[in-house]
Specification:
Blueprint lengths: L1 H13 L1 H7 L1 H14 L14 H25 L1 H8 L2 H7 L4 H33 L7 H28 L3 H18 L11 H9 L1 H13 L1 H7 L5 H10 L4 E3 L2 E3 L1 H28 L1
Helix pairs in contact: 1-7, 2-4, 3-4, 4-7, 4-8, 4-9, 4-11, 7-8, 8-11, 8-14, 11-14
């Protein structure tokens, strides 16, 4: 299995076009903010707060990282789709290697790619935050970010794995990847502050498990800037800001705590890995 995993990783990182398109959604988000949405807070009182630019940048960074875990994992499964298309997988199944080891190599490849590429994305973004005047995270903060990246990469790999096993051709996979890349920014609530969206859309986002990965990232990345910016500001304004920006989620009187967000991500992984197994059993029977 180790040899297969190394082979899959090499194929992914060797394919520069696939690598580029894996990060395409992140580039789109960056372009949207540079061209259209960069002044989303321009007409609000938030601009008057200290470190407003750092607040905005770190909020956007959390969204970019959440998107990267999904799109890069999806791109990594392109290796599996190509193996199906070119009948290479038949050679694997005819070899002494067990079927579960072959499948695990594809899944671990997607998980490692998602975690690695998201971490690489995080490095320049956090350096830019420091350049803007933001304080660097503590060692605990960086470890917390790495833990969250691993968690959401694991959860999102399960979702993407289900999609990858549900399609059989490269064209179908490319279409699915395009749809996911287009919609994921809306489903994670990162194009606009969630408080500015209709109530029905807000509810859908809050119940969408991957969006809780973005929430956990926001809570960690924005903790220090919020403390500095809202020092001396009445608590009700801070609470309103956190709800509007999707730093905390509420449905009525129910608040999603960090523990609940973690549980939703883990539950999502279990459900979608289970659905993936069902897909694979159907493929064996055909």
């Amino acid at each position: 299995m180790t040899a297969l995993l190394k082979r899959n990783l090499k194929l992914y990182f060797r394919d520069k076009i696939n690598l580029l398109f894996s990060m395409f959604a992140v580039f789109i988000i960056l372009a949207l903010y540079m061209l259209f949405l960069g002044n989303v807070w321009g007409n609000t009182q938030i601009r008057a707060l200290p470190e407003a630019n750092v607040l905005m940048h770190n909020w956007l960074t959390a969204g970019k990282l959440a998107v990267a875990t999904i799109t890069t994992s999806l791109g990594a499964f392109g290796v599996m789709i190509d193996d199906k298309t070119w009948k290479i997988s038949k050679g694997f199944y005819a070899s002494p290697v067990k079927r579960w080891q072959i499948t695990s190599a594809y899944i671990l490849n997607a998980f490692f790619v998602g975690a690695i590429m998201t971490t690489i994305t995080f490095i320049p973004l956090t350096l830019y935050s420091i350049w803007l005047g933001g304080a660097p995270l503590t060692v605990r903060g960086y470890l917390q970010i790495m833990g969250i990246i691993l968690l959401i990469s694991f959860s999102n790999t399960a979702i993407v794995c289900f999609v990858a096993t549900a399609v059989k051709t490269r064209n179908a996979f490319s279409t699915a990847a395009s749809i996911i890349g287009t919609l994921i920014g809306f489903l994670l609530g990162i194009y606009l502050p969630i408080g500015e969206l209709p109530n029905g859309v807000q509810t859908a986002i809050k119940l969408f498990p991957p969006s809780h990965g973005a929430v956990l990232l926001r809570q960690t990345l924005m903790e220090t800037p919020i403390e500095r910016s809202f020092d001396g500001v009445p608590a009700q304004y801070l609470e309103g800001f956190q709800e509007m920006m999707g730093i905390t989620y509420r449905l009525g009187d129910f608040e999603f705590t960090p523990l609940i967000s973690v549980a939703m991500l883990l539950a999502s992984a279990v459900v979608f890995f289970g659905l993936t197994l069902l897909n694979m059993r159907k493929m064996k029977m055909q």
